[in-house]
Amino acid sequence: MSNATTITAADGVPFVDTVRDFDAPISAVFKAHTDPDLLAKWLGPREAKLNVTKYDATTGGTWHYESGHEDAMFGFHGVFHTVETDALIIMTFEFDGAPNQVGISSTTFEEVDGRTRIVAHEVYPTVEARDMALATGMNYGVVEGYERLDELLAT
């Protein structure tokens, strides 16, 4: 079963908030967010390819991946600031095409009514940077990625 994804980007603030429930245990949802092999199977839209080149999901670890199509791949990277198993991931994110525009994301994992709820709060350097990310179809990729994660968790 696929649950609704709620994405909120209020006017005038550089934030994107995402809430999503999964019909799976916290440990499985958390592992899918921290294991590079699993991440490559669900992150982003179906038609995009994801090449994870580095993903050390530990406090102080770094990450880098490329996403897109064979004719146009886009790089993203960052640092894991806090990783608390089955509870919290705080990490920076930066698009290689917009250097020095670093954002920070905080994702919590909690059990709610027998499901796992993730709540992500992303902070962009400016409202304009946030709006540019949204204009690229980020919401579509998030929603479809979570649908793919549902499918992965069902196996």
Automatic annotation (TrEMBL):
Top-rank taxon: Bacteria
Matching Pfam families: AHSA1
Domain Activator of Hsp90 ATPase homologue 1/2-like C-terminal stretches: 23-153
InterPro entries in UniProt: ASHA1/2-like_C, START-like_dom_sf
Membrane-spanning intervals of the chain: none
Family in the record: Belongs to the AHA1 family.
Protein's name in the database: Uncharacterized protein YndB with AHSA1/START domain
